[in-house]
Structures are given as structure tokens and as C-alpha cells.
Amino acid sequence: MKKIFLVCIAIFLFQNTSYSQSNIKLENLFGDLRARHIGPAVMSGRINDLENHPTDPKIIYAGAAGGGVWKSNDAGTTFNPIFDEFCQSIGAIEIDPNDPDNTIYVGTGETWPRNSVSVGDGLYKSVDGGNNWKKIGFEKSERIANIIVNPNNSKEIIVGVLGALWSDSQDRGVYKSTDGGLTWKQILYVNQSTGCADLAINPNDPNIIYASMWEFRRTGWSFNSGGENSALYKSIDGGVNWKKIHNGFPEGNLGRLAIAVANSNPEVIYTVIEAEKNEKKGIYKSVDAGDSWKQMNNDFGITVRPFYFSRIVVDPRDENIIIKGGLSGSISKDGGETFKDLGFMHSDIHDAVFDINNSDVLYVGTDGGVYRSWNKGTTMEIVENLPLSQFYHISIDNETPYNVYGGLQDNGSWYGPSFAPGGITAKEWNPVGQGDGFRVLRHPAKNIIYSEMQGAENVWRYDADNNLVKTIQPLAVSGYEDYRFNWNAPIATSSNKPNRLYIGSQYLHKSEDMGDDWEIISPDLTTNNSEKQNQEDSGGLSMDNSGAENHTTIFTIAESPLNENIIWVGTDDGNIQVTTDGGKTWENTISNVQGVPKNTWVYHIEASSHDSNTAYVVFDGHTSGDMTPYAYKTTDLGKTWKNIIPSQDVYGFVRNIQEDYVNSDLLFLGTEFGLYITVDGGENWAKFTKNMPSVAVHFIDLQKQTNDLVMGTHGRGVIIIDDISPLREIKPETLSSKLHFFSEDTYTMNDYSGFADNFGRETQFVGENPSFDCEIKYLLPKRHTFGKMTFEIQDMDGNLLAKLGAGKSKGINIVNWNYTIKQPKIAKGKTFSFGGFTSPRVAAGTYKAVIKKGRDTYEKVFNVEYDKKTGLNPNERKMQYEVVMKMYNMVQGLAYLVYKLDAIVEDENTNKKTVSKLNDLKETLVITTGDNYVGTAKKQLREKMADLYSKIASSYDKPSDNELDNLSLIESEFNMAKTKFNKLKKKVKIEGLSLKSFEEFINE
Amino acid sequence: MLKRILVLIALVCSYSINAQTVDEIISNYFENTGGVENWEKIEGVKMSAKVNQGGMEIPIEIVQLKSGKMMTTINFQGQSIKQGVFDGEVLWSTNFMTQKAEKSDEEAINMLKNEMNQFPDPFLNYKEKGYTAELMGTETVDGAETFKIKLTTTPNIIEGKEVPSVSYYFFDNENFVPIQVQEEIMEGPGKGMVSEVKMSDYQEAGDVYMPYSMTQGVKGQPGAPITMDSIEINPTVDDSEFAFPEEETPEEN
């Protein structure tokens, strides 16, 4: 039976190995290729919602604006992500109070709709504490503000949907389910531009519901908050009937309103009102469940930016203690009469929760992560392991290890290394700008870094070697209109002229001296539509002209790496301009693009590194409510553009594209919901999900030396996929082979050594390092599950050097070898010889990886090279290797000697006197007393020998004279011991003893 | 002969298409790995392996018996060090520094007692053990299509609170053997992370098939591979091997 079964399996294997060109399912082939996250978590990122467990004070959930859902089991000391496969922009989290360990709801889509806000894609439910999630509707809701489960009935749920920000939509208002989320009914709807901004219930009577409805709209160039449809509603019959509760409210139109009910006395409710008149804005309180209202306070902290901060939290045990979100966050202890700022922390406070048992303890969500307080907000401490940084842009340099540069929402500009001893901690990151950070670029040849703040108000040139900073933004000159810089103004360097720098307003500015002087090399390249240039009117009821809405600007600049006269410029109002003469003449090629609505934001242009006439462009239509993914390619300087997302493979609008330097059919696409990859020029795209969350990828770069794909995400920091080179070889031919070794065949043994700072790591996020191992990579057409599969490293004569666990995945497999053979066999003593745990490295040379799978054997020959940075010459390397191996053999020789000695001692025929003499000898060979810690005994020959072996084997350097002298000493001691042993051995009859040979002993 | 094979292939094919219920998947699994009768005959397992840790090769031996007794023996420089030894009542490990045995707490012991029933395979007669299994759907693991099955076993007491024991098994939809197990870590500093074990190299162990290769780690991170050199079914192990070694008190003079 078994035999027949195996035959069947074999036939299955055979059947499944055929592929056709058009059917490469790349998403099943990524195998061991995986992303690593390097943060940073120094400044964390924006938090939208915090939620605590109703009975376990140690459990806290945080919903990030762009970084998913995180759960803490230790009162915020550490957090783990629990929602990586889904949309990372979070609106609301709700724990079912009747089943808090299992049932959790997550509503996606951030509800603080700043210009850079992402979008959600529905409501999710878990019934197993967050291990598995199911989308249960609201696909088009775009942003969910609240979810409330009836505390007496888990089947009854109400959801407040704020809805689409950039377009009309009927998918908004208040919804109710009475069957645990299977079906939904819209129970409050106002119109296509008014959504539910906040929702609350009376905890003693869940049929009493309060809903704040908000009229709002954003465009690429303006924001409006408020209108005649904004209102506060109340229902006392579970949402069947609603009435406005405005008795005591200000006259005129209203904007965003928050609502909060005091749990300890549900007659007390608070709202914060955005009104027409400044003096009427602020906190209002009702002590009769909304029948009448009284204005309490309109301090700056209470009225600031209502669209961003309309959140009120009431202490569950004290109706007079309230927290209001804001620039600094405010707390009142007198029912809203007076407020003071919360303790010093990152600005922009969006949410707070009190500990369920102790109101002195509170958690606060900010634009810079989660903070905790033990004294009701007087002093705050940051949670250090939430890597939620929101990059707008990243770039890399060519150092070893390379550095990653980037700018963050509200958190400045930074650079940090792609590798650091022990991992990439917070202290490895260096600030290189203030305000909001955007484009950060390293000079192609010098240690000079360019960075900027919003709207290019400052562009900095930072001489990192000498700590010299200069502002270099272009200033107004006669003959030109006032410059219009985007909030996220594009800066570009040139790979043809290292000192060249570009920056885009509506004009393209060029500098040939690192920004000291500027020349305008274009006319206005935008549509210059004056209707989109009234930012001073932006904001609605509360003016909000931060510069974030600046429009009709240049957004992307790309000089061809192959021809410095070809420059591409894309604008936020939908122009693709190209010059082939360094800016003398420009051509707008947008009319040659088919299938993209007019004036759609040109988000990124990538000039090909293979052909100067080739470029890629991606469009982002989300600011007009168009979520379609758009990517196009031209091979004729824009005369024709080809849609390179012809399929339905890609989900989410596109922000960036990266072409591979080697294989022009290999492209990487950054979308709002993650990374997509194609190996056939765009015919098919596959989502990359290996340790890669569905996070918005704003910018991608590819490191030429390492082939690492580096992504700037808007919510999960910098994410790297090390060495994407195997993707270049995924083709029908390689997939149809039974096992394909990827072509990489030369590896360098890195001599890196150093010290890691381990302090603080218990609670800090630590970015993952790349591997320094020899990584043998191969492609399997099918996962290996049945039968034996082994992986060995052998020398060219077939001698076994290392046995490693083979990769079994369908697709790309990576087996790591750290260039060592196994550690020497050590003489048995009472304690461990720690030097004996060292495995020696092989010499540089040619080796082979040998995979045996079933009856088949596959071999890959590869070269191992020495690291050149140590400066050792080949003779010195040879000498080091020979000394190490001499000592390795000596250590094993001693082990064999002790083995024989023990065998003779244990033999009953050995006379007592000889036993005693042999034991005396043994005491000089190995430690026979004590323990492995402070009870350790005096070192004997084994310890001295193994320690020297380990010292030399672990060093990057050739053995010193001192080490060689020490070796001679140890060697002579060993020779003396051998002589002694041989003399004593003659006194016993060993013929009866069945002693193992040296080889048998070593390999047992 | 060819006809017979083709009929068999058709049978196997129809299995993979029609095997929708959790019990069909589980029954296929046992059928394909030797049959329930052979699995029921297993009284104990001894696995020998070499773990490779950063170039250091460490021989280990794992013994598990139906009675609940178990131990892992690690060999370092000629010395055997026992870890996770359970004699049915006492759970102990050897301290690496002092090389003396130290006992584990009551919660850890009760957890092991709860798990005793899972031997040799938690799915074997799982209903009689009071476990439940639920088919969650299909998922891709290492590029292979799998059935995801949620297995709920006896709940544990962790930090004084009853916590359900839930693990997710991913059964390859061609061979009906589990190729991955995921489980939320419920205690210790890793609490909240998901442990992940991948299995492959199913080969004969006595009269059944077992995975000879496993990769263990945390979801999202690279795991550590371990390959069995041998799996011995129903080994002879002396009871004294599991006993907690009482420390000898030196006689006072």
C-alpha cells in the first residue's frame, strides 16, 4: 500500500512541474525571500485609536494611522502586530465586552483626515483573539470612526462610518447589525458628503445612542470642514428614530463634533463643537443627557484643528475628569471649566484611555506613538517598540553597510544604517532635518545630505563630516511668479553630475553647485489652474492653511541616468513633461496616455537605467476618489505609453515603481496596500507577503551592490528585502527544471566584528540585520514534503564540511552556511571548555553545495573569498588557516588521548597504582572539579589549548608571535603528556580493551 | 498494472477535490501515514538529531512515552545534559552552570499533564480526548495549498487564568499530512507572538510515516532547522532515566 502511495506521489510531482509562460504564479514562489524591518521606532508614528480590555488591565490595543493593529499583553511594555495581512490604516478597534478574550472588531481607514491620510477597506472581525480575521463588510466605507458592541448582547453592533473623504458616497452614516455582523442596516444617513464622526451609547441603556454627523470634503488643493448638515443626533430607541440635540448650541453651521458619555453618570455628556464663530467653539457639557447644553471652555487646546483632534475621553470613574485631544492634549478635573496640558510628549494627541481599574494610569495616542502615564498625565513615557514611522520618501547611498535616508510625517528627516552590531536600535538613527520630513538625498560622491521641510520652506544641505548646515532653497527672482512648492516638494540629484541638484516648484530649478545657486530651466510645467491655488481659503469653519494643500506643483523629477539632457517632470495636476535638451524645450506627453482621468496626480516617474528613451510613470487618483492602480511605460520618450497593469492583479492605488538594474522585466510596485512584483514586465503582478505587511509603500529604491530592495512605508518604517537577484531568474525554463541553483557563485567571508550595546533592548524595537552567511539559493518547482532531502557543503574532493537543513519550499529557497566546519571534539572533563565551542572557518577556495532529494543529486560549485578589509595577504591568510587547523587537530588529539586514558582507568584489569598515576596525569589534562560558573577550577591543558585555538580561530588577524610562542608551550606540554601516557600504557594490557580508532572516535 | 495505478491516481485526485470535511482530512492523514491501527500501537518515540547552531553541531535525543514521560538529552563535550524531563509528576532540567537538576513550577507541570493525551498525535481519536477540530479554509504554505485546521485541546491554567489551548495545523492538500503548525505563545516574554513549526521529509518510522525534518521559529522570522537522524518507535527506556536526581548531601564529619 505504502509503495503504491509513493508511486502516486511521484506521479503527482511529475505532473505539477510543467509551467506555461503566461501562468507564473509568482506569489507562490517567494519561498524564503522575506522582508526585514529596520524601523525606526525612535519617533514611532501616528496612532488613531486606543482600546483596552474590559477585564484585564494588562491588555491594550493600539490602532495606527498607517501601521496596523498592535496588541500589548503587558500594559504597554511591549506590543505585537496582529493585523499585518490587511489594510494598515485603522479607524477604530472594539473589543466585545461580553467575549473580550476572543471577539475583536477592527474598522479600517483613519478618521483624522489630514492631507496624507490613507484609506480603509472595510470592517474586520476576529473570534479568536486576533489570530484570524474576516472582512465582514463595509468595503467602500473608506474610514470607520466607531464600533460599539452592546454590552448586554454581542449580536447587536453599531458602526459609525465617516466614509469617503475625497468624493461623494452613500456608504456612510450609522449602521446596525442584530446578528453579530452578518447583515447590516443603515440607521442614520444624512447625505453623500456627511458622515458619522463620532458615536456613543449610554452604557446602562444601549438603546440610547448619540451620533455626531460631519459634513466634510477634501480635494488635492483644499479642505472643507462643516456645513448645514453637521449635527449631533440622539436616538432613544436603538436607532429607529433620531432627533437633533442642539439646545444651547451656537447659531449657524457646525463642523466636526465629538461626543462622550460619562460612564459613572450617563446623564453627563460632553461634546466639542466646531462653530462659525471662534468664541462659540469649544467644549459643551450636558447634565441632562443632551436636552440642554452649556459652553464650558474654548481655550486654544480645545478648539485647535477640529478635523484632527475632536476626541473627548471621560474618566470612567469620575464624570468631571476629561481628556481632550489636541496639539498637546488637555485634561480637565473640574468637568470642563478649566484645562491644562498633558505632560510633555510628542505633539498631536488623538486618543487616550484610562486603565480599567486605576485612573492615575493612562495611555495616550499621538503622532509619535503611544505614551503611558502613571500620574494622570502629568509626566509621560514613550512606548519604545512601536515601529510605526511614516515615510514619504527614502533614498540610499553606496556605503558599506549602506544607509537609508528618509523624511517622516511630522517627524523630521533621518538616516540610519542597514546594519549595526547586534541590530539597528534607536540610537543608530540620526536626525537631518526638522518639521515634517520628505525627500532626503545623499550627495552621490560626498558625505553631504540634502533634506527639506514642508513646502520647501527650508531645504538643508548638511555636511555630515563637519557638522555644517546651510539652507539652500531657491528664492524668488524677478521675471517669475511666486514659487508654488508642493507640501512634499521633489528634490533630485543626478547620477551624471554629482554636484547637480534639482528642485521643483511650478518651475524646474537646477543647481550645478550643490544648491548654492539656482537656475530655472523650465516654464511653468503645471496646468497653473488658478481655481486650485486658493489655499488661504482652505479649512472650512476653521481656517487650515498649513501649506499641505498647495497644488499645481511639480511632484516628481527624474534625470535619465544614461543621458543628462533627458529630464522627466510629473505634476500633481496631471502633466508628464519631458525635455531632451537639458530644459531648453519641454513637451507635455500626458495626452498620449490612455485610460487615466484628466489631471490625475503624477506620483512618480522612474527613468529607466536600461534605455534613455524608456521611463515609467505611476498615477495616484485617490485625491479625487479614484482608487484605480495606474502604471505606464514608454519606450519612445512619451510618444506612446503602455498600460503595465493590464490585469486585475493589483489592489490599491499606486505610489511608486522601481525597475531592476539587470532585468528590465522585473519591476516593483509600491501601492497603498503593499508591494507587488512582476517578472514579465507587468503582464502579471504578485503581492509580496513574506513578513511584509499590507502597508502603504510610498517609495522604493534598489541598492546596486547588494541588490537589496529598500522601501519607505507610511506606517511601518523602512522595510528591506535583502538580495532580490533570484527574482531575475524566475522564468518558465528555470521553473520547469527539477531544481535550479541561482547563478550567484561568489561569496565573501565577512570579517566583521564589533560590540553591541544591549542596554534597553528589553523594551526597544531593534531593527533586524542582514545575514553575513554564505546564502545558497535554489528554486524548487514544488514543496518537498515526502522522502529524504539533504543539504551538504563539501570540498571539491567530496569531503563533508557541513550538514545543513535544506529549504523545502516551492519557489526560492535560501540555505545559510556560516563558512565553518563543525567544532572540534573536545576531551571530556567535569566542566565545559568554552573555547571548544568555536567552529573554524574554511579557507578561501572552491566548494560545492550538494542536495540529495530522493534519488537525484544536485550540485552547485561556488567560490569563497576572504574579506579584503583586513589587509592580510594570501600567505598570512594561509598561515592563519594552517595554525587554526593544527590547533583544531591538536584539540581533537587531546580528546582522543583522554578517551583512551579513561578507558584504561575504567578497565578492571588495570592495577590500582597505574590507575592512580593515570588519574594524576588526567588532572593535568582536563578540569575534573568545579562547575561552569564561579565554581570553576584552575585551567588545565584542555582549557589552555582550546582557549588559544578559539582566540586564533576567532581573530580576523594572522597569529601573533606571542600566540605562536604560547602555542609552542602548549604543544610541548601536550607532547610531554603523550610521552607520560605512552609510558603508563605500557604497564597495562590493552589487548582486551576494544578501543575505537581515532576516526571512529571523532565521528561517533 | 498501469490501469491499477491510474485508478489509484483517480482516487487520490478525487480525495483532494472532495475532502472537504475536517474528519475526511484527518482520516486521510492517518490512512496515508500508516493507518490508525499502527498509530495506536505506538507507546513511545525516541528521536535522535543534530542541531546546527551557528556552526556548532549539537547532538540531541528526544524521548516521549505514552505515559507522559519525556526528556531531551543534549550532548556537549561528552557530557549528557537533560532538559525538560518529566516523570509523570516532576518536571526538571539541568542547570548549565552548576550541572544540577532544577524543578519547574506547578503550572508548567499541569500543562504537560494536559498534553499527555496528545501522544503520539493530537488528532488520533481526538474526539474521545475531548478535543475539537475545525476546518478554517485553505491557505498556501511554502507555495503548497493546505487545509487549515483549528485544533482545540485541553485548556491550561496560565498565570492563574484558564486559557484555551488552540493550534492551527496546515495539511498539505495532496498528501494530507501537516506541513505547518502555528500556535500563539501564551506565556513568557514572547507572549502574543506566534510560534511556527514547519514539517517535511515524511519517512517511515516503524509502521507509520513521520516528519524527519522540522523548522521551528516565530512567524515572520527565519526558523531553526532540525533533521532527525533516526526515529525509533517503542524504545526501551528505563524509568530511572526520568527520575529527578536528588542532590547528595555530603556527610558531616
Number of domains as seen in the coordinates of chain B:
1
Q: Report the helical percentage of chain A.
A: 10-25%
Task: Predict the CATH topology of chain B.
Answer: outer membrane lipoprotein receptor (LolB), chain A
* Alpha carbon gyration radius of chain B: 20 Å
CATH structural architecture of chain B: Clam
**Strand arrangement, major sheet of chain B:** 6-5-4-3-2-1-13-12-11-10-9-8-7
Just give the CATH class of chain B. Mainly Beta
Largest sheet of chain B: 13 strands, antiparallel
How many β-strand runs of chain A?
A: 66
Number of helices of chain B: 4
- Unreliable runs of chain B, pLDDT <50, ≥5 residues? 1-19
Specify the overall morphology of chain A: globular
CATH superfamily of chain B: Lipoprotein localisation LolA/LolB/LppX
Shape of chain B from CA axes? globular
- The quaternary state of the protein chains shown equals heterodimer
Label the structural class of chain B.
alpha+beta
First-last Cα distance of chain B: 82 Å
Indicate the structural class of chain A. Answer: mainly beta
Key terms for this structure?
heterodimer; A: 1004 residues; mainly beta; 6-stranded mixed sheet; 5-stranded mixed sheet; 66 strands; 12% helix; 32% strand; disordered N terminus; B: 253 residues; alpha+beta; outer membrane lipoprotein receptor (LolB), chain A; 13-stranded antiparallel sheet; 4 helices; 13 strands; globular
Topology, element by element:
The complex is a heterodimer of chains A (1004) and B (253).
Chain A: H1 2-15, E1 35-39, E2 47-52, E3 60-64, E4 69-72, E5 80-81, E6 90-95, E7 104-108, E8 123-126, E9 134-135, E10 144-149, E11 157-161, E12 173-177, E13 185-188, E14 194-202, E15 205-218, E16 223-225, E17 231-235, E18 243-244, E19 254-261, E20 269-275, E21 282-286, E22 294-297, H2 300-303, H3 306-309, E23 312-314, E24 322-324, E25 330-332, E26 340-341, E27 349-354, E28 362-366, E29 369-373, E30 381-382, E31 391-396, E32 403-408, E33 413-417, E34 430-433, E35 441-442, E36 448-452, E37 459-463, E38 468-471, E39 491-493, E40 501-504, E41 508-511, E42 519-520, E43 539-540, E44 554-560, E45 563-571, E46 576-579, E47 587-588, E48 601-607, E49 615-620, E50 630-634, E51 642-643, E52 654-659, E53 667-671, E54 674-678, E55 686-688, E56 697-702, E57 709-713, E58 718-721, H4 732-736, E59 740-741, E60 746-749, E61 774-780, E62 789-795, E63 800-804, E64 811-817, E65 845-853, E66 856-866, H5 874-906, H6 912-925, H7 941-953, H8 961-985, H9 998-1003
Chain B: H1 2-18, H2 22-32, H3 36-40, E1 44-53, E2 56-65, E3 70-76, E4 79-86, E5 91-94, E6 101-103, H4 106-115, E7 132-141, E8 144-158, E9 161-172, E10 178-184, E11 194-205, E12 208-218, E13 224-233
Antiparallel strand pairs in B: 1-2, 1-13, 2-3, 3-4, 4-5, 5-6, 7-8, 8-9, 9-10, 10-11, 11-12, 12-13
